[in-house]
What does this fold into?
Amino acid sequence: MSQDVARVALITGGRRIGRFVAEDLARGGVDVALSYRRSRAEAEATAESITALGRRALTVQADVTRPEDCRRLVATVAAELGRLDVLVNMASTYAMRPLATLDEAAWRDDIDANLSSAFYCSHAAVPVMRAGGGGRIINFADWLPVSGRPAYTGYLPYYVAKAGVKALTEALALELAPDGILVNAIAPGPIVAPVDMAEDEREEASRATPLGRWGGEAEIVHAVRLLVTTSFITGETIRVDGGRHLR
It folds into this structure.
């Protein structure tokens, strides 16, 4: 990527941690586009914080489980902001689906939201990145499937999808290396506790983590910053899990 041109990033599903990532990119001189499916108010609030930091911001409604929406999303970003250099595929769902109740629709929902969306957006972004001389694609996996540990029952399609994200990352990295497009993934562990998680469950997760705590949003921000600025890391999936995979 040319360093003398203001870069443009697109973050999909940029709620919660996505806002911290977007603001960090803006502080680094990057204009940021945000896609949302239903959370328009949250996306617009993040956009306001980006413009307050002196960068351009764009919000686009899109269902990233639909290839046509992904193509429209990328085309809109390129048209409005002039280019696309960084794609952060954060869109994801996490729902318990017991095997006895799992049907085709539920399977497809998980696979599409957690795996297909990353492929559709990446596939749409590649021609724009090629035209700009390269780029960075950052996907989001999960520390458990990346570590080969299906530790919890009831999450079969989610586990399979996130394991697929690692494979997608590696295959895309090989395909796109000649174009100067680096593709990596982040596999979070206990970063931010869900708002509805009981205090004893939060403490249990802390005890199960070698570093003894939840990571916090900043740890994902640091990992994204590394993968945006590197020029020699590609095809890698980085576990940001406080050593959880070691136990």
Summary: The longest helix spans residues 104-131. The two ends are 39 Å apart (CA to CA). The chain is about 45% helix and 15% strand.
